[in-house]
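Dear colleague,

Thank you for sharing your sequence with our group. We've completed the structure prediction you requested, and as agreed, I am returning the results in plain text so they can be pasted directly into your records. Please verify that the sequence below matches your submission; if there's any discrepancy, let me know and we will rerun it promptly.
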Amino acid sequence: VFLHCGDILMSSSLTSQSRGLRVLRDFNDWLGSVPCQERLVIGGNHDWALEKLSEDEQKELLSNAILLHNRSKEVAGTKLKVYGNPHSRGHSHNQAW
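Please find the predicted structure tokens below.
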């Protein structure tokens, strides 16, 4: 996937339980090639594999991004502050977090 250079790339709800860690590793590799100043990831309702990891393991697995898990990040050079919370609500069978 080709992306033009940008300031921020945000992503959420990355994978399913059955393909979890492999997809997250591939996604992290791809993130390393993205020409954005900031790469922010927020877990979502499909991210069972991510949810089962410790916070340190999550950070290690997604080392090419900042994982926002109940915290915020001010984007460098801006006054924009992004808060991430992986909570999902509803009656779907996809309810990580």
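Summary note from our side: The radius of gyration is 13 Å.

Kind regards,
the structure core
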